[in-house]
Each structure stands twice: as structure tokens, then as C-alpha cells.
Amino acid sequence: MSGRRIELSARDGLRLAATEWPGAADRTPLLCLSGICRTALDYAAIGARHGGTRRVVALDYAGHGESARAADPRRYAPEKLIADVIDAMAALGLHRVAVVGTSFGGLVAFALGVMRPASLAAVVLNDIGPEIERDGREAVVELVGTDPCCATLEDATAWLRRRHPPMELLDEEGWRALAWRTYAEGEDRLWHPRWDIRVGQQAVGPDAGPPPDLWPYFGALAKLPLMLVWGQQSHLLSVDTVALMRKARPDMRLVTLPGTGHAPTLEEPAAVAGLDRFLAALP
């Protein structure tokens, strides 16, 4: 099932884009939120599997994917991206959703749990938790702020593969697909990131300041069905943090992907099986 692109305006008039797969109105909709250097394209497989059964919406943050680029990079501050998500949910009639959040998308779910707790029915965290390892954060900053300007998709695939954390479950075609979802051919015939590289200055870069204590935000999800997909080689989410999350939430479903770094694609067989079982249990 293919999705359809929809557009809406943020409160300041900036154009935002999303991909929607319509579904049964009596089932909990699924809101898919990507990482800070990812886009709605990451959720095409989930939309194809679950569209029809339930409504699925994958949002492009400002400066990402098909959403407009801001004149001022301060527009990409985390609090403004979170406000965009809240406004998009209202505009699209997503009053109570299950969120699948990859990395930064999981942090948005944390914020929703505090700011709009009634809007959440369940949460899937993809390789993110209430403690973010410093080395991993710095690696994300570097990737977000780099434009490799590759001549071909093959060059972009090789570039990404050399610098990306380990993804042992990806074959050659999988790496090529990941690169295509990461880079797009521009008017200059070169391949560039599908996001504004200035995003990192505000969202995860040095201008963002020290990260807040996220454990209270994690605690705000206490009454919700919760699932964690963890890349065992993640440089962002440590084994110790996962253990503490499990101690705090012994009912949390956990899918562990060996040989996988930050962040899983959610197309790994174990992730697909775990996610589909989790969502099947939701009304």
C-alpha cells in the first residue's frame, strides 16, 4: 500500500509535509517520527504493512525531507520541532496515537508524555533512552552537519557505509536503500542530505546546550504500553541505560539487534516481528 503526501502549515507559516497511509477509523493511529538526520521515507515499509488496518502518518520535521527549509537555523531548535509535531497532530486529527520514534523521534515522544499525556496510547522507542552517551551524540552532530556532495548514489552509499555505525543485518541492496533514503540528487546533479545540515546547530549541536535530565520524561510514559528496539552496538544507547530502563519498566518489550548500531532501520526481521506483535495488541 503506497502512502500519499500531505502538506500543512506550521504556526509561523513554514510548510510541513507528511506521508499518510489511510486506515480504519476505529483503530489507534500510528504516528512515525524519524531521527534528526532521517525523514518520513524511513517508515514506508511500516506504512505499507499497517496502512489499511490503521491510519499511519510519518512526519517530516521542518528542514527535513519534503518540508520547507527555514531562513533562520534557530527555527530548528528542539522545542520548535516539538511544537510543530503537536500542531501537526491537531491539524491532522491525530488526537490519540501510538508513536514510533527513532532517536530524536523518541525524545519527541518523551516530550509528548509530559506536555500532552492524553495524546499517547503507546510508544515504541527506536534506539533511544533517557541517557544519551556523549560519544554517540557527537557522532550524530558530525553526521547531521556534513554534506558529502557525492557524484552518484553508489558513491553516497560507499560514503555512508564507511561512516555509519555497524549494520550487520544489511546486505548490499539494504545499504543502497538506506543511502537513497538518506541522500537525494540535487539540481547540481550531486547527492546531498535530505535535511538542512544547519539542523545540527540547534537540535543536537553545541548551540543546543547540555541535554536535560530525561528520566522524569521516561517516567511520564509509565502507564503506556512501551517497546524498545535496541541496536546492541549502539553508540547512543548503552547496555547500562537499557538495564535501568528495564528495571524501571519490567513490562517494557525489548527487541535486541546484535551487530547493529544507531539506529536500526526497523526493517530487520526481529524488529518487524516485534513491532507487528506490539501494534497488533493495540485497539
UniProtKB/TrEMBL annotation:
Per the database record, which ranges form the AB hydrolase-1 domain?
29-269
In terms of InterPro entries, this protein maps to: AB_hydrolase_1, AB_hydrolase_fold, AB_hydrolase_sf
Q: Does the keyword Hydrolase apply?
A: yes
Molecular function (Gene Ontology), one example: hydrolase activity
Q: What keywords are annotated for this sequence in UniProt? A: Hydrolase
| PANTHER family listed in its UniProt record | HYDROLASE, PUTATIVE (AFU_ORTHOLOGUE AFUA_2G14860)-RELATED, MONOACYLGLYCEROL LIPASE
Q: Which protein is depicted? A: Alpha/beta hydrolase
